[in-house]
Write a structure and sequence with these properties.
single chain; 216 residues; mainly alpha; Hypothetical protein af1432; 69% helix; globular
């Protein structure tokens, strides 16, 4: 089977698992976000793979399926932390069914399993390919949409001016600390720093606007 057909099948499999999910039945916005996030991560992963001479189709498949276990409800934080390992368990029989090479299946499943906390429940090698699944995930989680999502989550619009200023200062401090995070490839690091700088500029402008909301 051609690799591009495997990518199409992986996309169809992801859609089907989410469409058939009882958990997502009355959670359209959550379902849409998780699907769109998976596609964005796949596009980021493809760029990394192409620039780093990795198997781009395998990377796209790994990234598409990295969060597929969200089709099930997590009943605790511990279960949520295991979602990478759960996703690998869902992905493996599908990848075997479509006839992918065993070595490629191992690479994909290991990358999916470790993308949350760098741990898997089966043996594998922490290759640049495997680590890049988590890198692509992190890069997407620090893009433009996450700014909106985070501000919505903390109920920024309900904060006092002082609370807004305190929150923005904490975010900027945290973002600065993320500049030194390790990434598997030069490409991933460059993409990460670009997204990080975007967020830093946004929050610096937001802080300036907060300051300008007080008469001086």
């Amino acid at each position: 089977m051609r690799a591009e057909n495997c990518v199409e099948l992986a996309m169809d499999f992801l859609k089907r698992k989410f469409d058939e999910s009882e958990y997502f039945y009355d959670k359209k916005s959550e379902k849409d976000y998780r699907f769109e996030h998976s596609v964005r991560v796949a596009n980021i992963g493809k760029k990394i793979a192409e620039k780093e001479n990795m198997d781009a189709d395998a990377m796209v498949i790994a990234c598409l399926l990295h969060d597929i276990s969200y089709c099930n409800e997590f009943e605790s934080r511990e279960e949520a932390r295991n979602h990478g390992r759960y996703s690998a368990k869902i992905a493996r029989p599908f990848l075997e069914e479509i006839g992918m090479e065993p070595e490629t299946i191992e690479d994909i499943c290991y990358g999916i399993a470790i993308h949350v906390d760098d741990k898997a429940d089966f043996p594998g090698e922490r290759t640049a390919f495997a680590l890049s699944v988590g890198d692509a995930d992190n890069i997407d989680r620090f893009d433009a949409y996450r700014i909106f999502e985070n501000l919505k989550w903390v109920k920024y619009d309900e904060m006092t001016l002082s609370e807004k200023n305190e929150h923005v200062n904490k975010v900027l401090e945290r973002l600065e600390s993320y500049k030194n995070l390790d990434f598997a490839t030069k490409t991933s690091r460059e993409m990460w720093l670009e997204k990080l700088e975007y967020q830093i500029v946004f929050y610096e402008k937001l802080r300036a606007q907060i300051k300008n909301s007080e008469l001086r």
